[in-house]
Fold:
Amino acid sequence: MAPYEPEQNTSETGELRVGRRKAARYVVPVAVAGVAAATIGLVPALATSGDPKLPDVTAQELIEKIAASDTEQLSGTVKISTDLGLPSFGGDMAGGLAQGGGSGGDDGGDEGSAADPQAKLMELATGTHTLRVAADGPDKQKLSVLDDAAEYSLIHNGDDVWAYDSKSNEVHHSKSAGKAGDSGKKDAPENLPEDVPSTPKELADEALKAVDDTTSVKVDGTAQVAGRDAYRLVIKPKQSGSTVGQITVAVDAKTGTPLKFTLSPSGGGSAVVDAGFTKVDFAKPEASTFDFTPPKGAKVTEGDDAKEFKGEASKGKEFKGGEDLNGLNVIGKGWNSIAELELPGGQGIPTGGSGDVPPDAQQLLDSLGDKVSGDFGSGTVFKTRLINALITEDGKVYAGAVTKDALVKAANAAS
Structure:
């Protein structure tokens, strides 16, 4: 079906909020992407069938429909594929990252729990996974990651957040943070990043923050997702130099709920994120869906103190984003925005043979990085299919959803 309208700008829907967000948003995008993909908020993309005939709508009307959507009850099955061009984050690597996060157990040791969401949800940053999701308002959500011979479940019910890994028979328990805010929604569980969307509406809102005069937005026909009629909203950068090709959101024609989310890279090939419902039901889930009691014999780890990633470099202190960075600055605008900052100590990434990092970690760093040089000196560009980061030898960082050449150009201009 042909598009309903010519390409149009939608600047009033919001600007790309790059500002002084946590450096992890730029420097450790893999962790953010992994957890975001795992939350119930990423309700997303699936192969579609058929082009249903629906009443014509404009892009602005469809955006307003998403904004007005009040869907809080649903259940279904989601298939998600993530291809950032990175090594797998499954198993030991994900567990090691979580242990670096310092979640710890009852005894305060460093071993952590195999059920810790910080580790398990990181696995969704690579590969293809099947999830079961359910939600009943802001206080009840459940997500289960299905494996061939095991299942991992994350259950939020009131003040409690339970995570259970059937393979290891381990349970991780934590509390929801704080009281309900003005919107009536409680804060996210303490051991998950604050900036991760937690509902379908929030995910759509995050994507629409990029809509400004550097963006084109249009309704590009219709689709059918999980048996539901939907409109296809396409958000695309006008600027060259971005690694983002386009974002496509399939929006349920009846409820305005996003059913499909696909992020395609400008370099072509498979989608960076392609995830979505294979089945969906907007009826109220059974109350028992959100009940959980640790199985007999399961190891239970209390994670109430695990509020943030606490990497080894911070020696257990809470990372406080911009407060711990030197001169975080944003270069450019729109899709070509680049975060510029300085690493503590004025030193860049250790080079091979320095002995500053373990051999396996050095091998990983070298495999991800390209050596570059210019007026700024020399450094290494670490690549994914979406976010790239240039770290210079004198400890400056330039990062964004832009190409390697754009990072080098920004570093040269700033030197």
Q: What stands out?
A: Helices lie at 24-27, 29-38, 59-68, 91-100, 117-120, 200-208, 359-368, 404-414. The first helix runs from residue 24 to 27. Confidence is low (pLDDT under 50) at residues 1-48, 92-110, 178-200, 305-326.
